[in-house]
Amino acid sequence: MNPIPHSVLAVAAHADDEVLGAGGTLAEHAHAGDRIHLLVLSASATSRPGTGQDDVRAHRADCVTRAAALYGASAEIADFPDNRFDTLPRLEITRTIEAAIARTAPQVVYTHSASDLSLDHRITAEATAAATRPQPGVSVSTVLAWEVRSATEWGTGVPFRPTWFQPLSERAIAVKEQALQVYASEMRPWPHTRSIRAVMEAARVRGAQIGFPAAEAFEVVRHTVTRPA
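Above: the chain's sequence. Below: its structure in token form.
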């Protein structure tokens, strides 16, 4: 356990992104005694024609709560429209993230890569970058961008280039898979890139890249080196 536990905030565009991108890493933080907070910007109900939006929203909110419980995390869900973040004032999204940062005082923030195909993901990445701009009194020292299967690898801009790797224990891998099972309704059958099998095997590939059995990979948005007190 860390002598001084960190506060960690994961900012996800949609419910399940936090597990796809950093489910194992959050488990490692939880095991180390860190305080974990989840901010999900959309319940992902509005882009599904033919389904009851209230029912979908309630189901996704329940999934967020159950997944958060695996990490002992607090969770907050905003109600931004799925796949329509571009219809909102960017400042509204940024202020929602700023408010979460003010409440949780995180040292580490995880979010999406600006390389993603999903516009919601890219807007979340940009809004998080704006909300975590370094200034006196801000708690955030590290901002890391995760990858999401079926979104990051198909981006048409600058490719995702991870330079920060978090090795995962078998315990953390098991928690990530449990959390993916919570979101089973959002996963796809193998061999879809967002199937549970594909996501878990991707963690094994990332681990092999650094000589570990499993890992998750991140882009460094910013890391401020601080001297120990």
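The chain has a mean pLDDT of 93.
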